[in-house]
Amino acid sequence: MSGAAIGLICRPPRLTRVRLEPVIGADRAFALAQAFLTDSVALGQEVARRETGRFTVFHSPVDTGDEMAELLPDVDLHPQAPGDPGSRRERAMTHVFSRGANQAVLLSTDAPTLPPALLELLLDALRSGGDAGCIPTLDGGYCAIGFARPLPALLRDMPWNSPELLSATRAKAKAEGLNFRELQFWHDVDEAADLRLLRISLDGLAPPNCSPLPPFAANATRAVLA
Predict the structure, then answer these.
(1) Euclidean distance between CA atoms 97 and 115, whole angstroms
(2) pLDDT tens, 7-43?
(3) 19's torsion region: left (phi>0), alpha (psi -120 to 50) or beta?
(4) Dihedral through CA 29, CA 12, CA 44, CA 185, nearest 10?
(5) Cβ contacts of residue 106 below 8 Å, gap of 6+?
């Protein structure tokens, strides 16, 4: 393999629905989690196709292989052993570079309308001298991180799932002497308040303080929220 590799870090929808359950109910939260997975896979596949690269889904827990294969037929699936978000991303990064990737971008499932062109700009940044880079989110984290080569330091001992993730990653990159590129912001969906921003991007508009690039269509998510 050569070129870019896109990796999606995920779990089955039944394990990710809990964040929105208190507000929209269990059934709808499950449907939305499943839609986020479907759309994130479609987004990753589209960008990988444009970049003539490879798309891989890295899922956990390890014993959910059959479940994920039923949800995502004909998708390259790679099970992951238990670990914190950093260790799982580090293993995914190591895996795609071991298969010959020249650049790697890792996504999660909580930004289903992330503009494909923004991901392509991230890859361009890696090809034009960036050691690593990210697409930051409004809540102080990021929805995609990219690497021009294996850089595990950017994934270790990080404040995952906190508003300090972006600043900590930025500081680590500076301490390591890395050329770290930050692109325009996008939004993710972690709680009920984020659904308003999601609806704006589903309407094809840029949410406040986010990139003006066209959002991904996210048709499965659109159908759930219709």
Answers:
(1) 24
(2) 999 999 988 766 778 878 888 889 999 999 999 999 9
(3) alpha
(4) 50
(5) 7, 8, 9, 89, 92, 93, 144, 145, 146
What domains does the chain contain, in order, with CATH numbers? 4-225 (3.90.550.10)
pLDDT digits (tens, 9 = 90+) for 114-128: 999 999 999 999 999
> How much is the pTM?
0.95
Res. 113: pLDDT tops 50: yes
CB distance 64 to 79 below 8 Å: yes
pLDDT at residue 1, rounded to an integer: 43
Does residue 55 contact residue 48 with C-beta atoms inside 8 Å?
A: yes
Q: For residues 43 and 160, give the distance between their C-alpha atoms in angstroms, rounded to a whole number.
A: 23
